[in-house]
Design a protein that fits this description.
Structural class: alpha/beta
Radius of gyration: 20 Å
Helix content: 40-55%
Largest sheet: 9 strands, mixed
Distance between the termini: 28 Å
Order of helices and strands: EEEEEHHHHEHEHEHEHEHEHHEHHEEH
Strand content: 15-25%
Shape: globular
Number of helices: 14
Length: about 375
């Protein structure tokens, strides 16, 4: 049950449909696959998505920190020594996605050793997770056509609208077209990825007030402290912290100091261990959460499903679980299926992230 090897395998898979948003664009999933092998041959997998414009991590930096810094300290630990592993990785600042993937791979090993699905070990609340689909920068009518297609084909009835464009009227128009075309029963929310100032975000909120949007994620840079707190105080809908809350400590700071009143939880950056702590904090504070998306592959999406369905607090809202549909291919041996607007929780021991070796060989870049 001891960790015998920790590997970081870089790979690249193109997107058929690139996603554009205020802080960048993704054309290729140039991610890192984390593989942990125990001394008795159990293998755990997880995906680490570099987001240099958000967290400062690159594909090369994730490989380096995992193999050169984390691995020498983790080898020899039991895969059940989660808190010891957390303490080892905490000595290195930042590197959130690298840390999160190592933790998920350890949980995958644990589930296999115990013969239990990881979602059961984490809480086992439900057997599926409702799906929200992210819509990137496009003309309003194209966005509506995409949303209608995802509703028709997959039964998805929750959509995130990427915003933060200039002039702000582009995003106001997109929100209005989506609401008119999708009807009042579909949930729509916005994510500006820090693209506006606080004053611009306030103007958007004023103009969309009658559209019934449910919340606004990261409207401005959280370092715009007074403006952000004014937004939270005055907004009729919750203001969500995402990039400004990449770990437990910063999530607590944003909530307790009035920088947000809702939280995005992403297993890709806080793994399962720290994500559970973030959710516990939010639940105690009476703050809603939802499972966000790092523009995940199917491997990363499985982790989000496993975690989101495990806890009552995360399962209340749809998770952002469908953007892997825009990828040209994937590494998962058993492809994910979206049916009736939901993804089923894997029932096999572990996290359900078995990798197709031929596809990994095809797409790895080391």
């Amino acid at each position: 049950m001891k960790i015998a090897a920790v590997q970081a395998i870089p790979y690249a898979i193109p997107y058929r449909t690139p996603l554009h948003f205020a802080s960048g664009a993704v054309h290729v999933a140039d991610h890192v696959l984390i593989k942990i092998t125990t001394d008795d041959g159990v293998v755990g997998w997880a995906d680490a998505p570099p987001r240099p414009y958000t967290y400062g991590e690159t594909q090369k930096s994730i490989v380096a920190v995992v193999q050169d810094v984390f691995a020498p300290e983790l080898i020899g630990l039991s895969v059940f020594d989660r808190e010891k592993a957390q303490a080892v990785m905490a000595r290195t600042i930042h590197n959130e996605c690298a840390k999160g993937a190592v933790d998920i791979a350890m949980w995958d090993c644990m589930g296999q050793i115990l013969g239990q699905p990881v979602s059961t070990l984490l809480g086992g609340y439900t057997d599926h997770m409702r799906v929200s689909h992210m819509l990137g920068f496009k003309p309003a009518q194209e966005l509506l056509d995409l949303a209608l297609g995802f509703r028709e084909q997959y039964g998805i009835t929750t959509f995130k609208l990427k915003t933060g464009r200039h002039p702000v009227g582009l995003d106001v128009e997109a929100a209005r077209v989506l609401r008119e075309g999708l009807g009042p029963e579909v949930e729509i929310y916005m994510d500006a990825n820090r693209g506006w100032s606080a004053n611009q975000a306030a103007e958007v909120l004023r103009q969309i007030a009658e559209l019934g949007l449910t919340f606004l994620e990261e409207p401005d840079d959280a370092r715009e402290v007074l403006g952000r707190r004014r937004l939270v105080t005055q907004s009729a809908i919750p203001i969500t912290a995402d990039e400004s809350a990449p770990n437990l400590g910063e999530a607590a700071r944003e909530i307790l100091t009035g920088g947000a009143n809702m939280l995005a939880v992403k297993t890709a950056r806080t793994g399962f261990t720290e994500s559970a702590k973030v959710v516990a904090f939010a639940e105690a504070a009476g703050v809603d959460v939802y499972v966000g998306n790092q523009i995940d592959t199917q491997v990363g999406t499985v982790a989000s499903v496993v975690f989101g369905a495990a806890l009552a607090h995360t399962s209340r809202r749809a998770g952002e679980l469908s953007n892997f549909r825009d990828m040209a291919d994937d590494l998962l041996a058993e492809p994910l299926q979206i049916r009736d607007g939901a993804i089923a929780v894997p029932t096999v021991p572990g996290a359900g992230t078995q990798i197709d070796p031929e596809k990994l060989e095809k797409y790895r870049v080391d």
